[in-house]
Amino acid sequence: MVYNFNNLYTDLLHLNNTYENLSIFSIGSSVLGKNLYCIKIGSGTKRIFLNGAHHGMEWLTAKVLVQFTDDLLAFHQPLQRTVYILPMVNPDGIEISETVEGWQANANGVDLNHNYDALWHLSKQSEKEHDIHGPGPTRYSGPFFESEPESRAVADFTRQNNFDAVFALHSQGEVFYRDFCGFVPEKSYDYTERFEAVSPYRLDTVCGIASYGGYKDWFISKFKRPGFTIEIGKGKNPLPLSKFETVYSRVKPLLIEAIK
∠ CA(71), CA(74), CA(75), 5° rounding? Predict the structure, then answer.
């Protein structure tokens, strides 16, 4: 059992029918025409963006973000900032992952988190080393950056909103990443201290093909502001739904710090 687009749609209806201080809209659509639903809550000049499920079998990140949205709204205290939450960047990939083991990519076989303009050409050059020669379940960076409707929609949405900080949820490892090829925006140090103070998550670094083409990499390189990848949970992907409560309880304090 996975948390898929139908589950998301049902939960968004519940949120919309339960709370008044939110708006739900689509920033675009997937290859197969599914809406990329985004939730806006709070008000204020500081603008924060959280997104999940860039990768098909990392669908638990979407459920985490929906639950986090519900908790924020149930608190009934107005946020002094504007928070945008896009739970499911890759709904088609989640659907495919239900029947194809190890599927991370979108319906075109493009790994969306290698499809952004952040040294994209180095990701492309690294593909042969990983025996990647075209579309497939993971690591294929596409024919050109932002070639996919999902990554292009997320990038366009980011450009339009000029976010102060962004946080992309992936799984697994209970670690987070804050740099792009060694560059760390100054305000990221404060986030790091707060994340490690309230959660078991710890700072880590990436190397090789994982260093290029990701969403937080692109945001850091273009905007020079804090961008984080947060790897929820521990175990083997896909993390099972039975682990949700444990995963959520351990990452929630970090997410609260992310939107401060």
Answer: 90
Catalytic annotation present for 58 = no
Based on the residue annotation, tell me whether 231 is a catalytic residue of this protein: yes
Average pLDDT, the chain: 97
In sequence order, which residues have a C-beta less than 8 Å from that of residue 92 and are 6 or more positions away? Answer: 30, 31, 32, 34, 56, 106, 107
- Residue 25, number of CB atoms within 10 A of its CB: 11
pLDDT of residue 76: 76
Q: Which of 116, 212, 215, 248 is catalytic?
A: 212
CA distance 83 to 181: 27
pLDDT of residue 77: 81
Nearest to 37 by CA among 150, 199, 183: 150
132 contacts 83 by C-beta, under 8 angstroms: no
Catalytic residue among 95, 150, 174, 231: 231
pLDDT tops 80 at residue 60: yes
Alpha carbons within 13 A on the beta-carbon side of 22: 27
Q: Give, in order, the Cα–Cα distances in Å from 70 to each of 19, 57, 91.
A: 9, 23, 20
b/e burial code for range 62-76 (CB count within 10 A of at least 16 → b): bbbbbbbbeebbeee
Question: What integer is the mean pLDDT of 170-185?
Answer: 98
Query: Phi/psi at 23 (nearest 5 deg)?
Result: -135, 145
